[in-house]
Structures are given as structure tokens and as C-alpha cells.
Amino acid sequence: MSLSFIIVDDDIVSRRMLKHIIEDCGLGDVIGAAGGGIEGARMILEAKPDVVLIDLLMPDQDGIETISQLKKQGFNGKFIMISQVENKEMVGLAYQNGIEFYIHKPINRVEVEAVLFKVSERWKYERYIIEIKQSLAKMEGIELPSGREERSSVRDIVKQILMDLGIIGESGSKDIISMMEILVERRSQANQDFPPLKELYEAVARTYKQSKNEIEKESKTIEQRIRRTVIAALTNLASIGLTDYSNPKFEYYAPLYFDFQDVRMKMKGMDEEVSPDKGRVNIKKFLHVFYLETLEKMKQ
């Protein structure tokens, strides 16, 4: 399935160049183009494209304001900002308002193609997650291994994912294995939401601790181990991305388990050899995706 694009830029030459690049790449179709933010917002709400390429500075309404208004009105497509502006605060504000990538003017075909392919990949992975969630509703009717055989199956699947992420040797990997076993055992509870992290940590601690004080204390230790392990996964993927941006593991796992902006920031810090930064990670997203992928692999 190809992507649909709308281009919003007051420069007609830029609009034509971007349209030609998108169509030449074969990633999708440009279903509309507008010369200003107000016109563009109206077109976007009507057509609901998958991706919007939008200029930062326009005479009637700037790109950041347009994006903010569109999000308030429920549009959830992806945004790529285009601008000559180099001001870091302005670029940071654009990212805070939800853009996926930033393309510099004058337009460089190689840069545009690279960004479009990455946005396309991220879109595919997000659809993959949606499909997994939809398939969970059908899981009850599928015969899966039970008892000891199921536990062994979960453990093998989780270990393989941990190895792919390069964290099988981290201290928190054992906690993740226990969490996935617990979650899979609980999956028969109809329409159960993914539990709060505190509840998960306590469930793992309860498997080998008994008193309330011991469980609470161990839960905090588990939380620290998990955070360190997830940060290690981010670091490993960022390192792979710096070496080979097209590495299959990087392309698959980085946007699936982490917010791509966080991966990019980690890569930038490593590339510029600045003081070590632990990096931002969304622990709940990481564990939730891990659980969904485990279930999907079990079904397969």
C-alpha cells in the first residue's frame, strides 16, 4: 500500500521538485499541494493524507502553527518540515509540535529521498503494531501450547528478541523474560489492558520474594535494571545505525521499540562524541511492543 502526500509550501518551485521526487521514488502519490498554511490545513483535513511536507515560514500562517491547529482538530498523519531556518530553538519547537523529520532548503534530492524512505518504514511498522493489536482479539480461538511447553516457547521467543537487541547479557533481561511469561499467562483475561509498570515489577518480584517490604524493595531494583537494559538496547541500535543506517536490525527494531527522534538524538550524541547521555526511553512502550511481538511470534 503506497502513501498519500500533501505538500504545503509558498514556493511553487519547491512544490514541483518535491512532487517529482516523491513520484520518482515510487513511495506514493501527491494528492494535493497548497501555497499557504490556511489553504493547506483546509486541504489536509478534507483529504487526510498519510504524510504532509510543510514549509516552516509562510506569509499567511507558519508551518508550526498550522501543524498545531491540525493536531487539535484530530489529524494524526505524519509531518515533515522543510525550511532554510537553521535556528536550533525553532527546529526544536517544530519537533515538539510533532514533526518526524526536518529537511533543509535548498532542497537536496538525496536528503529528501532518505527522509521519505525512513518515514515510509516507520509508517509500515506502526501499521504492523496496529495489525498485531487487532489480531490479539482473535487469539482466544487459536490453540497455543499450554503449561510447561508454553512457558518454554515464550522463553525461547523472548531470548531471541533480546539477542537481536543485543541485551541478552544485561541484568534486566531475566526480568523481561519473567514479565513476558506472566503477561502471556494472563492473556486469557478478556480485553485486559497492558498493566501499569509498578504492577508488572511487583508481579515479577512476587515470584521469588514473599513479604510486602521485600516485594516493594525488589520492585524498585527491578525498575532500575529494566531502565538500564532498555537504555542499553537504545545504545546498541544507535551504534548499529551509525555504522550502517540500512542494517535490517536497525531498520526493524529502532522505530518499533523507540521513538525515532530519541534514536536520532542518541546517534547524534554518539557521532559527535559528546559526554555520555543515557538517552530518553519510554519503558512502557518498549515492554508493550515486546509483549505484542512475543504474542505474534507465538501465533506464527
UniProtKB/TrEMBL annotation:
The modification 4-aspartylphosphate is found at D55. This is Response regulator. InterPro entries: CheY-like_superfamily (IPR011006), Sig_transdc_resp-reg_receiver (IPR001789), ST_Response_Regulator (IPR052048), YcbB (IPR013972). Residues 4-120 form the Response regulatory domain. Residues 198-225 form a coiled coil. Keywords: Coiled coil, Phosphoprotein. The lineage of its organism: Bacteria, Bacillati, Bacillota, Bacilli, Bacillales. One of its GO terms (biological process) is phosphorelay signal transduction system.
